[in-house]
Amino acid sequence: MNDIKKVVLAYSGGLDTSVILKWLQDTYGCEVITFTADIGQGEELEPAREKARRFGVKKIYIEDLREEFVRDFVFPMFRANTVYEGEYLLGTSIARPLIAKRLVEIARREKADAISHGATGKGNDQVRFELGAYALMPGVKIIAPWREWDLLSRDKLLAYADRHGIPVDFKKRSGEAPFSMDANLLHISYEGGVLEDPAREPPAKGMWRLTVPVEKAPSKPEDIELEFRGGDLVAIDGRRMKAHELLAELNRLGGRHGVGRLDLVENRYVGMKSRGCYETPGGTVLWKAHRAIESLTLDREVAHLKDDLMPRYASLIYNGYWWSPERRALQVLIDHTQERVNGSVTLRLYKGNVIVVSRKSADSLFDARISTFEDDQGAYDQADAGGFIRLNALRLRIAADKAAARGSGAARAPAARKPVAAPARKPAAAPRKASGATPGPARARKAAK
Questions:
Q1: Which segment of 81-95, 116-130, 175-189 scores lowest on mean pLDDT?
Q2: What 8-state DSSP symbol labels residue 186?
Q3: What is the dihedral of CA 9, 15, 16, 22, to 10 degrees?
């Protein structure tokens, strides 16, 4: 890559990307353009600008992408009720496609020769950034310093920073930061450091910045009403807001009731297992409400089809394939299912729980005339159920008859599994010998002295 003269760097202003900025200048002798995205991480971004200027960066992009992030990435993902490995709401994963998109857009505008990022060679983010970049700009060159340099420890990074006058946060220097943290408007993730041992309880100090412990949550529950149009949240308690404002408000509401904490061992795309702790209060509330409004408005088979496809859709996002043709095709299907997902859901927030209280929709497929347990005035003829059952039992009866004819006994119910024997208990220790019994060797020697 000797022809690289200009690089766009995804820059946070932290230790890693500040070292990368200087390393790019020294290693490639290139001009570095920094790009910092505001996606709701809640940090002051001006220090990143000042750090970049300190190292001679002339072109600095700092962009407020909060609305685009929620409207065009978070909301489409939640239309699918997306969850990875049964629990993870993909707060980190869904932020990467937007950052990759802006990186290549800036690279085109600035006629840059390459883009660069600070993701390590062990994690998922390198895959997410680079797959996104290649999908949007096939000929792009990517510099991933963690796969090139020899600064593979915190001590080496700090030594490099000291040599080049790079300011370092005291906690980074002293080692007081016991884990790494990544935040955006959807969640905060905590990984590494003391969290690398899955058997160790997360520290109470320094973590869980969005949510209160359930034991400190209010003793009185709080009811909130969420309104949906076309599968997207549009109002909370009758107040219409922009997409990013809605999610921020859900974070506030869920957080004060201790909603949305998760401690997960997940399977990374690169092959290893990793322990992560996540806070997603607003996303947890939104996910529950969206499922509730869909339960009223979606046809059964459409709902089941969505549930079948969701794990695949979640894996595509987790593994970095947001910009792939298969994810886009799935999105068209998902969005089509949301055309009648309109209405409101009332939820009760209480000590870490999100409880559905009620739901209503003008597009509801729930028909009380048919589903009632009382006299339905002929709306549903219960006699029809007999034929329905006989037809659905036909294949079961045929299989049972064939098994009986073969004498295989396959028609019989399977035998119960034998219980697993409990491990044998260790024999009780022998009782101590009474006074006057023959002493052991040690006691005999002591007595002889």
A1: 175-189
A2: S
A3: 60
Could you tell me how far CA 228 lies from the centroid of its own chain? Answer: 23
Instruction: Count CB-CB contacts under 10 A for residue 355.
Output: 12
Hey, what are 432's tokens? 């101590």
- Kindly state the tokens that stand for 110: 């600035």
The pLDDT-based confidence of 49 (bands split at 50, 70, 90) is very high
DSSP secondary structure of 47-95:
HHHHHHHHTT---EEEEE-HHHHIIIIIHHHHHTT--BTTTB--TTGGG
Cα–Cα distance between 230 and 279 in angstroms, integer? 27
Task: Please report the beta strands in 290-429, taking only residues with DSSP state E, as ranges in sequence order.
Answer: 343-350, 353-360
How many angstroms separate the Cα of 327 from the Cα of each of 26, 133, 334? Answer: 39, 16, 10
- Residues 90 and 126 occupy one common structural domain: yes
Rounded to whole angstroms, the maximal C-alpha distance in the chain is 103
End-to-end CA distance of the chain: 83
Residue type (1 letter), 441: P
The kind and range of the H/E element at 242 are none
Same domain, 255 and 209: yes
Q: Give the global pTM.
A: 0.89
Reported in sequence order, the residue ranges of 169-260 that DSSP labels E, i.e. its strands, are 180-183, 188-191, 222-229, 232-236, 239-240
Is the same domain home to 68 and 205? no
Range of the domain at 142: 1-177
- Catalytically active residues, by annotation: 16, 96, 125, 180
What's phi and psi for 114, nearest 5 deg? Answer: -160, 165
Q: Are residues 155 and 269 in the same domain?
A: no
CATH code of residue 159: 3.40.50.620
Residue 438 has pLDDT above 50, yes or no: no
Please tell me whether residues 26 and 84 are part of one structural domain. Answer: yes
Alpha-carbon distance 15 to 278, whole Å?
A: 22
Percent of the chain with pLDDT over 70: 90
Q: Which helix (H) or strand (E) holds 141?
A: none
d(CA 309, CA 86): 14
CB atoms within 10 A of CB 323: 17
**Residue where a domain terminates, one of 177, 198, 217:** 177
d(CA 157, CA 177): 15
What's the pLDDT at 448? 42
